[in-house]
Amino acid sequence: GTNCKLIHRTIQCKIQNGSLTACNGCRCNYLVVCISGSTLGIPFFILAVLISDFLCAISFFFTYFFIKKYLGGYHAKTIWGCMGFSLLLELLFLGFFPNFLNTLVHVAILILCSFIIVKLAPYNHPHLHLTPKEIVSCRQKVRLRLCFILVVDIISYWFGIIELTNGCTIGIAMATALLCIGYINDWRKRHPWKRMYLRKLQKRQRNR
Hints:
Distance between the termini: 39 Å
């Protein structure tokens, strides 16, 4: 909201007067969006409770934010855009996935997500500029958290607490989806065809 815009303006002023580097300024802006977005977790949790049972909602909420902290992933340009996109994904994953979950699907999702996380995490957001040392640290932490969640998922399934298992599995799946979307978005921006398309579009506008 207004407070975030004020913070962004302050950061820009500090960059302009030289008291803050452009790299650190981008990181500060990114952290402001992340912190502000995390404070909007209440509607995120309320929606989870409304579209699923309480135990599944709790396990989903905990798993998603627990692993997302060091996993990283796609972030919209604004806080509200990020929140809206997350709520839409939550509706998709938590609202529809439980209807298709069985033992085979559970195993397939956990294997696929674990492979993606081990290979791609953490996502170094363009505005975050993680150093190689920070990337290694985040990679170790996210793998430890992944192992913890997998153990909880397996134990809950073993004891027949299906709602807890569903929440953990869906939480991992949604966090992994955001990780993949982040990389896909970066690839889309770097891909040559986009620059060619923009050049053609500019030429057409000039000809008009």
